[in-house]
Amino acid sequence: MPRQVEESHLFTVLFNFWRCEILTRLPLGSLVALFAEAPVVKVTRKADYDGLETLVCQVHGFYPKEIEANWVKDGEVWQEGTLRGLVAPNSDGTYYLLLSVQIDPEEREHFRCRVEHDSLKKPLDVHPYTRCFFLRVCVFPEGL
C-alpha cells in the first residue's frame, strides 16, 4: 500500500475514533442538543358536511421521537373531538405526527396546536392561520 494511502487511512481511523470518543463522553442531554431537529408545524382546516370544521395539525421533521402535541382552546388543553395519530418515522430518520379536532367554525380563533419538544426553548402555539417555516419563524396575520 502506498504511504499516502496509509496516512490517509490512518487519519480517517483516528478521526473517527476521536469523534466517537468525544460523543461517548458527552452527557445524554448534550447529545440530544447536538442532534435535535425542531418540528415543523402546519395547521390546516376543512369544512365538514355537518356544518362543523376539522382542524388538522401536521407536525413533522422532528428528532428525537419524544414530543408533546395537543389542541389548546383558550389556553387549556382540549380533548373533546380530538383524534391523535401515533408518532411515525420519516425516511430521513426524523418523525411526524398528525392530530385533528372537530370544532364549530365560529370558535376557530380560540384553537391552537401546541407543540413541546426538546429542540424548542418554549412551547410552540400554532393557529390555523399561522405559517411556521425554516428556522421556526412564525408569521401571524394581522389581528391575531
UniProtKB/TrEMBL annotation:
This is Ig-like domain-containing protein. Its main location: membrane. One of its GO terms (cellular component) is MHC class I protein complex. Keywords: Disulfide bond, Glycoprotein, Immunity, Membrane, MHC I, Signal, Transmembrane, Transmembrane helix. Residues 39-125 form the Ig-like domain. It is found in: Membrane. The keyword Membrane applies. It is a single-pass type I membrane protein. It comes from Podarcis muralis (Wall lizard). It comes from the Eukaryota. InterPro entries: Ig-like_dom (IPR007110), Ig-like_dom_sf (IPR036179), Ig-like_fold (IPR013783), Ig/MHC_CS (IPR003006), Ig_C1-set (IPR003597), MHC_class-I_related (IPR050208). One of its GO terms (biological process) is antigen processing and presentation of peptide antigen via MHC class I.
